[in-house]
Fold each of these.
Amino acid sequence: ARPVATPGVSATEIRLGSSVPLSGEAAIAGNVARGIAAYFKYVNDKGGVFGRKITFTYLDDGYDPGRAVNNTIRLIQQEQVLAVFSSLGTSNNLAVRKLLNDAKVPQLYVASGATTFGRDYKKYPWTLGYIPPYSEEGELYGRYVVKNIKKPKIAVLYQNDDYGRDLLGGLKRGLGSKVKSIVASVGYDPTSADVQPQVTQLKASKANVLMVFAFGKFSLQAFNAVSRLAWKPQIFVNDVSSASALMAIVPQSAANGAISIVFGKDPAAPLWRNDKGIKLFQSILRKYGSSVNSRDLQDGYFTTGMATAYTMVDTLKKAGKNPTRQSVMNAATHLDEKGNPFVLPGIVIHTTPSSRFPLTQVRLQRWSANAWHPFGKLITARPG
Amino acid sequence: MALLALLEVDNVSRRFGGIVALDAVSFTAEAGEIVGLIGPNGAGKTTAFNVITRLYTPDEGDVRFNGETLLETPPSGIIQRGIARTFQNVELFRGMTVLDNVRVGAHARAGEQRPEDVLFYVNLHSVRHRSPLELPYATQKRVELARALASGPQLLLLDEPAGGLSHEEVEQLGKFIKRLRDDFELTILLVEHHMGLVMSVANRVHVLDFGEKIAEGTPSEIQSNPAVIEAYLGAPA
Amino acid sequence: MILELHNVEARYGPVKALHGISLRVGEGELVAVLGANGAGKTTTLRAVSGTVRRSGDVVFAGKKLSRRPEATARAGIAHVPEGRGTFSELSVWENLRLGGYTRRGNVKHEARRVFEFFPQLESRLDQQAGTLSGGEQQMLALGRAMMARPKLLLLDEPSLGLAPIVVTVIFEALEHMKGGDGMSVLVVEQNASLALAHATRAYVLEVGKVVVEGTGDELRTNESVRRSYLGY
Amino acid sequence: MRSRLWLELSGFTLLALAVAALPRFISDFRARELAIVGMYFIALIGLSILTGYSGQISLGHGAFMAIGGYTTAVLSVNGVYGHQIRDLWTIPIAGVIAGLAGLLVGVPALRLSGLYLALITFGIAVSFPQLPKKFDHFLGGTTGKILDLAKPPFGLATTPNNWMYYLTWGIALVLLGAAWLLVRGKTGRALKAIRDSEVAAASSGVKLATYKTLAFGISAFYAGVAGSLYAIANAYVNPDVFPIILSVYLVVGLAVGGLESLVGLIAGAGLIYFLQNHADTVARWINQLPALNLDPKQPGIPSMIFGVVLIVVMLLLPTGAGGVARRLFGSLTTRFYTRS
Amino acid sequence: MLVAAFTWAELAQQLAAGIREGAIYAGLALAIVIIYRTTRVINFAQGEMATFTTFIAWSLMNHGLSFWTAFPVVLAIAFAGGVAIERVVLRPVENAPVLTIVIVTLGLALLLNGLMSVIWGGANRQFHGPFSTRTIDVGGVPISVQDIGIVAVSVGLVVLLALFFRFTKLGLALRAAAVNPESSRLVGIRVGWMLALGWGIAAVLGAVAGMMIAPVVFLDPNMMQTILLYAFAAAVLGGLDSPIGAVVGGILLGVTITLLGRYVGFIGSTLKLPAALMLILVLLLVRPGGLFGRVAVRRV
Ligand SMILES: Nc1ncnc2c1ncn2[C@@H]1O[C@H](COP(=O)(O)OP(=O)(O)OP(=O)(O)O)[C@@H](O)[C@H]1O
Ligand SMILES: Nc1ncnc2c1ncn2[C@@H]1O[C@H](COP(=O)(O)OP(=O)(O)OP(=O)(O)O)[C@@H](O)[C@H]1O
Ligand SMILES: [Mg+2]
Ligand SMILES: [Mg+2]
C-alpha cells in the first residue's frame, strides 16, 4: 500500500490518456493513438508494467484545440490519468500546456515537432516532446546544402504557420553565412486548394534547390507542380510529408533524387520488409489492434505510435514500482533507451533534465527507384 | 372642387423596361371622399398605389399629401404620414396570429387604435389567435383591412377588397366601407373591378387605360362614357 | 358523366372542411358552384385535383381518380387554383409551355388560341410572370390551363381581379371550348348571374355541404339563391 | 393570452431553479460540460433572433463567437496599455465588440437575400480565421493566445468548473430573459413581420434597415458573449478554436431547437456538444442493434455517427424540438395546404 | 517572404494556373448550381459525393479497368446514387424548412466523409485521369495537357447544360418543380422525380468534376473540402442558378485570387479567402443575383 494515492495508479492499473483527431481533416493522424493502444494491450498481455495493466484512453478532438482542452480536462478530472501522453498537434498541445503544468500533470511525448515543447522546460517543467524538432530538421538541410551543393540558389515553399516557419528558421540557421542563397521563399496557407501558383513563383526565381516544407497533400501538389512546370531543382522534403506511400504517387520525374531525413521505420518501405521490428509491429497490430485492416499495416502513423508507446513503457518501468507523477517526470528526463525496435537501428532515445528532445538522431535518405534509400551516418539534430 | 386636395397625384409616370405602367397620370382625392380608380387589367392601378406608398419611385411627377410631397418619405414612413393600404394579392404575415398581424399595423402609430377594438370592428375577434393561412381568402382580405385600420390612417388605399365575395357579401362590404369612412373620418381610394361596388360607394371615379387617364367623373357619368365602355366595361351591363 | 363525387370529405389537419359532398359533371357540361365565403368551394375543387387530403369516391371518366395532383393532371384535369399558382419566377412563355406539359408534340396551336382570348399575354412572352398585374396573372393562369386541352377544367373564381369586359370574354371562351372540344367545366364563381347564365347545372354549398342543386334556370329562380347570390 | 404569459414565466422560474440546483447532482466535470452547453445556448439564442425571427440566415456566427473570444484574449493577455483586464469584465466588452461587428455585417446584408446571405456569412466564417494569422503580432497567429485558467473570483469556495457553470448559466438566464422580452414585444413582432413580408412590414411602418441591422447586432452580441465565455473556459484561443464547422453546428443547433423556440434551443445546444464529444456513447447505443459493431476509435466512424444522427434527428423533427412542442401545446398551427 | 521579381513569362504562367484552378472550382460549382436550380437547396454534401464517386472510379481502375471503361460506369453509379440519396434521405424532409434540408445535406457530407475513411482510408491516392500529364510549350510557357483538358471539360459541360435547360421540356420541368412544386403538380409534373433527377444530374456533374480534379490535387476523403468553399464562392459570384455563371464565376475567381495572392503583397496566401469574399460581396451589392443570375422580382 502506498502512503498517498497517486491519480491514475492503482494496484492493478495505470491510466494514461491522449487527445487526438479521429474525425475531421486530420483524422488519419489519429492512427498514432490506435498504434499506441495496440502496443499497450500487447504489453498488458505480457504482464503489464510491474504487474499493472496500462489503461489508455484516447479521445477525439477533431483537431480543434478547444475540444482538446476539454478532453484533457476530462482526462485529468474524470478519467483520473497519471499522465497525458502523445496528444497530437502543435496548437492542441500548446492549448493545454499551461493547464497541465499548473496541475502538475505530465504532458509526455507530445506528438508535434514544435521546438518549444523541448526548449521551454524552465517555464513548463511537466512538458516533453518526442520527435526531432522541426527547426533542427531545417538546420540539417541547410548544413547539407552548404556542404554538398555548389552555388546553391534555394527556393522554399513552406506552410505559413508555426510549423513551416520553424522549418524555415532552422534552414536559415543551418545555412549560416550562406543564408543569402535563399532566393525566394513563399508561404502557402493551408486553406489553399493547390500550391501550383506558389511553385510557379518559386520557379521564376531560377533556383536550383527547392525546399518543400509542406504538409500532406500540399507536398504532393508541390511535386506535381514541379513536374508540370518542367522544373528540375534538387528537392528537399521534410520528414512529415515524406512517407513512402506519398512519394510513390507523385510524378517520379520530380521525386527522384529528393532528399529527406528519417528516424522511424516506414512499414511501407521495402527496405524494412523483413525487419524484426516491423514484423513485431505487424504482428502486434494484427493481434491487438481494433478494427485494423491490411492498409493499416503499411501506415507509418501506427509505427510512430508504437515507437512512442515503447518509450512510454520504458519510462514507466524507470519510474519505479510505485510511480508518481513526479517519478514519471523524473524518468522521462533521464531516458537512455537503446533498441527501440520501431526506430532506425542505432538510435538512442536520450534525455537529461536540461536536454528534453528524446529523439534527435536521424539519417538522410534519398528517393530513387520508388523507395527511400538512407545514406550517411546517423547525425544528431540536438538543438544548441 | 375644394381648394386643397388631401392627395394629389401629379403628372406621374412610371416605366418598367419597355412597359409604361403610368403615363403622366394626375388625379386627386379630397378629404372625406371615396374615390374609385378603375381600368382594364394592367392599366396601372396597382402601380399607382405602389407609387403613392413609395414602394415604387416615379420616373416623373410628384405625389403630394396634405400639400407636401411624399417622394422624400421612405416606404416605412408613409404610414406615419397617415396613409395605409391593403394589397391586391394579400400580403399577410404568415407566421403570426391574426392579432399580431394587426398589432404590426399599429407598429408605427401605437395608441391610435387598439388592435382588439379594430378586430371587433371588422368582426374578426373570434379568429384573432388563428393563423391567417387557415382563413378563407376573403377573410384574409379582411385581416389586411384590419391591419391597415390599426394605424388610424387619414387615407386608406383598398386594392380589390371584394375579391372572393358573393353578391350579398359585396353589398355588405359597400355599406361597411361607407361606415368606415364615417366612423374613422377616412378618405378612401378604391381599386375594384366589381362595378356594382364602385358605383354604389364612390363619390368620384378615375379611369386608367394603358397607363393613361382616360376619364374622370361621377359613377353615372363614367358608366355611360363610351371610351370607358369600349375599353373596360364592354356591352352595358 | 365525366366526374362524380360521392360523399367526399376533406380536411386540413384536424379541421374538416367538407362534410360529404356529392356532385356530378356531365360530359360537355358547365357546372357552377356557389357558396358564401368559407363554404368549402375551393376545397371541393382541391379535393378533385388532389391538393387536399380527401376521403370518399371521386370517379373521373368512369375510373376512380388518383389522389395525387400530378396524376389527376395527367388524367386530363386542369385546375386553375385560388391564388392563380403561376410560376412567378418563370417567364410568361415558360408558364404556357408548362401548361402543355402533359401534351406531346407541338403546343403552338394551343398557344395561338390562348392569345386569341388574351392578346395581352402575347406581347409579354418574355416578362417574368410575377411582375404581371393581378388580372394579367389571372389570364395567364387560365391560358396555362387551356394549353393542356383538358377533359375537365376546374376553375376557382376565374373572374377574380379581371375587368368586366374580360370576364365576359372568359365565359364566351368556355362556351366555345365546351362546344368545340367537348370539354367539361366545374367552376366556382362569385359572379353568380354570369355563371348561372352559362351553367347547365349548379350547386350551392354551405359549411361544407351541398344545400341546393339544380339546373341554371332552377337556381336563378330559387328565392334564397336570388337573395344571396344574385341580388334581385 | 394571459395564461400563456403565466406559463412562460413559471417555465422560466423552473428553468432557473433547475439550473441552480443541478450541480449538486452531477460530477464536477459534467458541470464543465454543461457550462459549454450553456455557451452554445447563448449563441443559439442570438442566432434564433436573427434567423428564426428576422429571417436572415447566418452560416457565419462562429466568426462572431471568435470576435468575442479574441476580444477577451487580447484584453486579458495583452491588456490595455499593459493593464490586463480580469476575464470576467471582458465579457460585456466582447459582446459589445462582436455586436458592433454584427451591425457592420448587417448593413451589406440588407441587400442580400436568402441563400445569398447564407453563403456570404458562410464566407465570413471561412475568412475570419485568416485574420489572426495575418495579424499575428497582435492576435497571436496559429500559436494562439494562452489565458489564465478561470478561477472563481472573490475567493468563492467552488471549483473552476462549477464557477464556469454558474457564470455561464447565470448569463444565459439573463440573456434568455432579455431575448424573451425582446421577441414577445413590439420588436419581436416587427422582426417577424419583416421575415414574413418585407413589403407589408414596410408599409406598416417597420423600418426594415433599422430592424434587420439591429437583429444582426443583437445576435452578434450574444455570439460574442458566448465566444468570450468559451475562451475563458478553454483558456486558449487560436484560429482553430473557432473552426468553420462551428458556424454550421450553430445552425444545426438552431434547427434542432426550433427556429422560434428559445427554450427548445437548450436541446439544440446539448446536441451540438453531445455529438462532438460523445461519439463513443452513441456508438455504444448503436452497437446494441444486432449485427452492428462500430468502433468509435476508428478514424471516420465518429463523423459517420455524427452524420447519421444529424440526418435522423432532422427526419424525426423537421421543425425542431420547439416545433414539436408547439404542435403539442400551441394553438398556432402554420401549415400549407398541400402538407400534412 | 522573399518574392521573385516580376516577369511576363511568370505572369502568363500564373494566369494559366489561375484559369486551371478556376476551372476546377467551376466543375463543382456547376453541380451546386444544378442542385440549386432544380431543388432550391444548397448542398453541402456536393463535395463529398464527388469524392465518393471518384473513389469508386479509383477502385474500378485499381481492378484493372481503363479510365474510359470505368468512366461511364461511374457516371451511371453516380446518377443512381444521386437519385437514391434524394429518394431515401431528402424525400422525407421535402417540405421542411430550407434550413432543415441544408442540415440534412450536411449530415450526409459527414456520413459520406466518414464512410470513405472507413472504406478507403485517409491516405492520399494517385488518380490517373484521362489526360496526359505531359506539358506542351505555349510561347515559352509550359502548360500541361491535363490543364487544357480540365478547362475544356468545364466549358463543354456548361454548353450542354445550357442547351438542356433552354431547349428541352424536361429542363423546364426541372426548374418549375424547384420554384413552385404545388403548381408543378397541377400541370402534371412528377415533382418528386424531378427533384431526384436534379440530384442525379448534380451527382454526375460532381463525379466528372471529381475525376478531373483528383489527378491534380490527389484523391483522399477530404479532397473536395477546400474546393467546395471556393466552388460556393464561384457559384455565388456567377449567380446561384446560372450554369454559365458557375463557370465564368469559377474561372474569374481562380484568376483573381491567384493574381492577387501573387502580386499583392499584403494579401499573399493568407488573405486570399477574405479577398475573395470582399470581391463577391461588392459584386453582390451591385448585382444581388450575381453576374448571371436573375433575382426574382416579387411585386405586390
Ligand atoms: N415590377 C414590374 N416589372 C415589370 N412590369 C411591371 C412591374 N410592375 C408592374 N408592371 C407592369 O405594369 C403594368 C401595370 O400593372 P398594374 O399592376 O399597375 O396593373 P393594374 O391596373 O393593377 O391591373 P389589374 O387590374 O390587373 O390588377 C402591367 O402591365 C405590369 O405587367
Ligand atoms: N390551408 C388551410 N388550413 C386550414 N383550414 C383551411 C385552409 N384552407 C381553408 N381552410 C378552411 O376550410 C374551410 C373552407 O374553405 P374554402 O377555402 O374551401 O372556402 P371557399 O368557399 O373557397 O371560400 P372563399 O369564397 O373565401 O374562397 C374554411 O373554414 C377555411 O377556414
Ligand atoms: Mg392591380
Ligand atoms: Mg375559395
Amino acid sequence: MDLSIPQELTDFAAEVRAFIRAELPDDLREKVIGRRFDILSADEKRFWQRKMVAKGWGAPAWPVAYGGTDWDVLKRHTFNEVVADEGAPMPVPFGQGMLAPILIEFGSEEQRQHFLPRILNLEYFFCQGFSEPGSGSDLASLKTKAMRDGDDWVVSGQKMWTSYAHQANMMFCLVRTDPEAERPQQGISMLLIPMDDPGITVRPVITLDGEHHTNEVFLDDVRIPGANLVGEVNKGWTYAKALLGYERTEVARIGLSKRLIKMVKEAAAKRTVNGVPLTETPAFRRKLASLEIELKAVEMLNLRMLSNVRRNLPGNEANMLKIKGSELQQDLTELMMEAQGTDALRFDRDAALDQNIDLFGDVDYRGDVTANYLATRVVTIFSGSNEIQHNILAKELLDL
Amino acid sequence: MDLSIPQELTDFAAEVRAFIRAELPDDLREKVIGRRFDILSADEKRFWQRKMVAKGWGAPAWPVAYGGTDWDVLKRHTFNEVVADEGAPMPVPFGQGMLAPILIEFGSEEQRQHFLPRILNLEYFFCQGFSEPGSGSDLASLKTKAMRDGDDWVVSGQKMWTSYAHQANMMFCLVRTDPEAERPQQGISMLLIPMDDPGITVRPVITLDGEHHTNEVFLDDVRIPGANLVGEVNKGWTYAKALLGYERTEVARIGLSKRLIKMVKEAAAKRTVNGVPLTETPAFRRKLASLEIELKAVEMLNLRMLSNVRRNLPGNEANMLKIKGSELQQDLTELMMEAQGTDALRFDRDAALDQNIDLFGDVDYRGDVTANYLATRVVTIFSGSNEIQHNILAKELLDL
Amino acid sequence: MDFTLTESQSLLRDAATRLVADHGDAPDIWQRMAALGLLGIGIDEAHGGTGGGFHDHAVVLEALGGGLVRSVYIPTVVVGAHLISTAGTDAQQAVLLPKIVAGEMTVAVANAESASFEPCERIGTQADRIAGGYRLSGVKPVVMGADTADVIIVSARTGGGPGGREGLSLFLVATDTAGMVRHGYPIVDGNGAADIAMDGVALGAETLLGTEGEAASLIDLATDRTAAALCCDAVGAMAALNALTLEHLKTRVQFGRPIGKFQILQHRMVDMTIAEEMARSMAVYGADEADGDERVARGKAVSAAKSKIGDCARTVGQGSIQLHGGIGMTDDYAAGDYFKRLTAFEMLAGNSEDHLERYAFLGTA
Amino acid sequence: MDFTLTESQSLLRDAATRLVADHGDAPDIWQRMAALGLLGIGIDEAHGGTGGGFHDHAVVLEALGGGLVRSVYIPTVVVGAHLISTAGTDAQQAVLLPKIVAGEMTVAVANAESASFEPCERIGTQADRIAGGYRLSGVKPVVMGADTADVIIVSARTGGGPGGREGLSLFLVATDTAGMVRHGYPIVDGNGAADIAMDGVALGAETLLGTEGEAASLIDLATDRTAAALCCDAVGAMAALNALTLEHLKTRVQFGRPIGKFQILQHRMVDMTIAEEMARSMAVYGADEADGDERVARGKAVSAAKSKIGDCARTVGQGSIQLHGGIGMTDDYAAGDYFKRLTAFEMLAGNSEDHLERYAFLGTA
C-alpha cells in the first residue's frame, strides 16, 4: 500500500502539459472546452493527431512496434488526464482505441500493415457501424446483412448513432452473414467499409444540443472486397465483445471531470447572489464540495483499478467506473448550468455571448453550458447504458 | 376547484383536539409520542378505545348501524390527523380496520352480531395471521393448513410477523384448505382463531429498536368450530385482497408525519452548532424545509385522492401514498436523529435520560430517537413493500 | 374541499386542449387563443375579459405546456394584465386591457437585474423625476417575452435606498420608446426573451403603474404569479412527456420483448408517474394561493410548489431521456422538446434551490 | 502508486480476520488482540510495539468492523497511543505504551463538549494552575470507550480565550482520580461510551501531555485519526453486510424463484456493492493521509472520506435492511447489528454533513 506518486510520473505530466500548451492553438482548445463533445473538423483532428504522432504520443496504448509506447496503465492514465484537463483533442476513439486492438489481436498481418499506420495518422478516419434502429441495447439482433458474391461481400441495411460518419472515410461495421445461425450472436461478422462507396448515404442526426455529432447510415448494395473482413467470418460478435474490453481503464473520464469542476469554480467565482459570491452560498458550496469529493472517490476507485490491472488482478471496476463516471459528468454539467443562473437560459450561443458583451460590458457567461448539459445526458446511455452496466455487474460480479 | 376548508371541519378538528387534551392521560400520550410504534399495554389500548366508543368515535369508518359514523372520508381524515398529531392512541387496526369490513361485506349476520360489538370495545383484540416464514411478499404461497374434521377445522402451521399476538386474544388467519387447487390463491380460507387455544404458542420477535412488537405464532392441531370460518371456504384470498383495499386513504399517515416534523423542530431549536442554532445551520435548515415541503406535497396528493374518493373516481393514489408516506416517515425519523447530534448515539433510553439530567442538568434530548429511526425502517417493508407497490402501479396503472 | 374542475373549467380545458392539438404550433396561435377568449381570463368583463381566477389560468397553462406551445401567455395575461388590473388607473385599464384580450398587445415584466433569483430589494434601476415624467436607467437581463412585447412593465427606484422595499415603482414602457435597447434571443425551450437596457429613457408621468414608491408588493405578486404559472405549464409538459415515455416503453422491443417488461424500467416509470402526481398536487396548491393577498403565505406556497415541482421536473425530464435511450437525444423527437421545456422551467423565476431557500427564509414555523 | 497490501499487511489481515472469526465476541478478545501483537501497531519497538503506519491499523480495523467486534482499539491504539507517542515525555511513553501494547490499559480521548461536531476552538473545559499541577472543571459527553478506560486524555484550556486555538492543553487523567465522575452506557452498536464530568479535579503536573497551551494541532490530529479509523471499520462492516445481503438474495425464495432474480433487487444490490467499493477507495485515501502532518491537507482528505463513506454506509445499511425484508428488522439477526454499527458510524466523530461542511470550509480550491 503506497499511494505516493513517483517523481518520474509528476515530471512526465509536466512535460505533457508543457507540450500541449506550446503546441495547441487557442481556437482548438476553446472549441474542445466549450462544446464538451468533440466538434472539431476532420482536418483539425488530423492536425492535432499528427502533432502527437510526431511527438511519439500518437497511440500510447499500442505496441511499440506499431507506433505505440511502453507506458504502463498508470502512465497512460496520467497522459490522458493531462490531455483532457488541458483541453487538447482526445484521439478519435473508433480507429485507434477500438478497431486497432482488434486488428492487432485478430486481424491478418496484411491488414495490420495496411491499416494501422493509416489509422495512426488519421488518413483513415474510422466510424463505428454497430447500432441499428431496432438494435440498441440488444445489439445482437442487428439486421444489416452481407451476402457473399464471389470474393466480395454485398452489404445492405441501416446503421444508427454512427458518430462522426460525416467526417469519417471508413467504417468498421457489424453485419449479419448467417441469418440461419442457432444463436443470433453466431451469425455476425465485422467488415471494413469505405465511406465513399456510392451505395452509402449518410444522414445527419441533430442532437439536443443543436449539433451534428451523429448520423444514420444507409447501406444499399455496398460491395466490399473479401480482404476487408476482419478475422474470421461469423466471429464478429467475439471481436465486438473484445473491443468493449480495451482501454476500459479510461471509462470514468477523470480528466474531463477535473476540467469540468474547474470550469464550475471559475463560473461560480464570477457570480453573486444577493451580494454573496455563489461559492459562499450554502447550497451551492455544499453541492460543489460534494461533487469534488465524488470526483475524488471515482478517481481513487480508478487508481485502485489501475493498480489491479498492473498486477493482472480481476475486477469489474470498469462497469462501476462507467456508471459513476458518467453520473458525475452529468452532475457537473448540471451544476455548471446552475452556476450560470438565468444566463444559462440563452440558447443562441456564440451570438448571445458577443452581443451581450457589447450591450452590457460586464456580462460574463459561457453560452454553451445548457447545450453541454443536454448533450451530456447521452453518457449514461451510450457504450452500454448504465442499466446494462448494472445488469452485467449483477450477473458477472454478483452471480445473481 | 375549491381548496378552502369548510368551517364545519375546522370546528370539528378543534372539538376532537379539545376532547383528546381533556381525556388523554399524560403518560399514555408520552408513550405514543416517544416510541413511534404503539407499545401501550392491551389494557391501556382498551381504556382509550372505550373512551372513544363512549364519545361515539370508536370506529368512524363503520356504518352507523354497527356503531360507526356518517362522516365522509375528508372528515375521517381530519379526525385521524388530529388523533395522530395529539399523540392519542390510534385504534388497533386489525379488528376494527381490517377484519370488521370483511365481516360486514362477507360475514354471516350471526358473525356480525357476535364479533362487531366485541371488536368495537376491544373485548376481542385481534391480530393478523397472514405472513409465514416462507411467505412474505409472496403471500399466496402460505402453508399453514386447515383440515376438516366434522364441523370443525384443525389448523397446523406457523405464522410470522404477527404484530401484537402477545396482546391479542383472537387472530384472523389465512389457512390452506385446498392444497390441490389449480392456483395457490384458490385454496385459501380465512378463520377466526382464539389465541388461548392450548395448541397455540406465541414466541416474541424482538426488533431492532429492542422492543417486543411482533411474534412468531405456532399452531399445532388447533381445533376451530366451523362457525369461525369467514364467508365461504377457499375464498380467503378474495377477502385478503378486499381487506387491503379498506381505508387506503389513511396509508400516508399525514398526521404522524406532522407530529414528527414538530418534534424535529423542537429538538433542533434546542441545539446549537458552533454557536449557531441548528435551525439556522444551512444544511439542516435546507433539509427541514425540504421535508416540510415534501409533507405538503404528500398531503395535497392525499387530499386530492380523498376528493376523488368522494366522487367515486378511480385511482391508484393509495399505492403512491404508501410509497411516499413511508419514505417521508423514514426521512423524518432520520432527521430527528440528526437533530440530536451525538446524543442520539445513546441507547439505554430511559436510564440515560434520567441519569444525564441528574449529572449535567442542561442535557435535553429524547432517548428514543435512534430506536425510532431503526424501527421505522419497517414502514417501507410491511403492508406490501415499496417494491411491491411499484410492481402494482406498473401493472395496474401503467399497464406495463 | 374539492379538487375537481368546475364545469366551466372543464369546458375551458377541453377548448384549450383541442386548440393546442390542432394549432399548437401554428404562427397565429396567439390570435386563435384570443378568438377563444383565453386571453381574457382573469380580466374584468368591463374590459372585454371573462373574469375567473388562477385555477382557470392553470387549466390553460397545463394545455399549453402539454402541447409545447410557445407563447407569452404568462407575462402578458397571467402577470401583466393582472398587474394592470390591480394597480392601473381607469384610463390605463381601459386602454390596455381590451388590447390584451384581443391579442393585439403583448406585455413583458422586467424585474430581476442579475442572472440570479433575488428579492425586489436588490433592484437598482433608477427612475429620476424630470419635468412631466421620469428618466429611466438600468439593465434587465433575460426578460421573458420582451423580444416581441409591445409594452414592458419595468421596475425602478423612484426613491429609497438600495436594499429597501421602499421607493420602488413600476412603469409601462412601450418598447418603441426612444432609448429602449433590446437584444432578443430564443431560450432553451424555444420561447423568446430579451435583455433590455435603458440609459436615460424619458417617460411621461402617465406611464407610472400604481402608486409611486409602493410597488414592492406588486413586484412580489408578479414573482409569485410567474412562478405559480410556470408550475402549471410544467405539469402539463410532464404529463405529456410521461405519456410519450410510457408509449415508448410499450412499443420499443429489445431482447425479444417490449422494454417496459423490464422491472427496472417499470419502477423508474412509476417513480416518474408519482413525480407527476406530486407535481400536480403542488401546482394546484400554488395556483390556489397565487391569487392570495398575504405575502408570506402566498410566497411560501408558491416557493414550496416551485421547489418541489423543479425536483419532479428533473425526475421526469432526465428519466424520460434515459428511458428513451438514443432516440431521446435527437432534436427532432418531441421528448427532447419537453425535456428542454422542463430544463427552462427549472431556471426561470428562480430554481429549486432558490425557492427552497426562500421558503426557509419565510419561515418553517 | 500501489494499492495492494504489502506482505506483512497481508499476514496481518489474515491473522486479524482469523482471530475475529474465531473469537470476535469472546470476552477476552482484547487480551487475544494483545497476544497477537495488534495492540502494538504504530507503537515504537522500544516500548514493545511493532511500529507500522495507518494502513496497518486499517487492515485491523476492517477486520474488526467485518466481525462486529466491540473494542476500544480506536481510542486506545489508533488515537491514544499515537498522542502519547507523539507528545508524551520519555517517562510517559515508557510507563504507558508498554501497558497499552500488553492490553493492560485502555485509553479514551475526550475533546468535544457538545453533542455536535465542533472545532477545538470551542473547547471550554478549564484547567487552572494550582500548586504542583492543575485543577480541571468541565463536562464531556459521549466519550467513546470512557466507560471502561483506565486513562482519559482530556483537553482543557490552560490559557487563551474561548474561540481561540491557543491555550489548549491535554491531560492524562486516570479514571480513578478523585472527583472524576463518569456515567457509562452502551451506544447503539453495543460499544461503550461515557459522559464525564469534572468539578475541580486536582491533577499533578506530570499529567500534562505535550506542551502546555499548544495542544490544538494534537486535538485536530486526534479528530482526524478517529474519523479515518472509523471509516476503515465501516468499510469492513459494509463488506460483511453486503455479503450477507447477497447471500439472502440468493437463498430467499418468493414467487417461485430466488428474490435475487428480480431486476430491481439486482440493481439495488449492485448500487450497494459500488457504494462499498467507493467507500473502500476513500477509506484508503483517508488512511493514507491520516499519518500526515499538514493540517489542511489531512483534514480535507479525512473529511472527504468521512462524508462520502457516511453516504455509502447509508446506502448499504438502509438498502440491506430493505432487501432483507422482515428478517432484517429482527434483533437476533446479524444484518441488524451491522446496520446499527453503520448507524453509529454516521454519528461518531462528525456526520456526513459536518464533514462536508468542514471540507468546504478548508477550501475547495
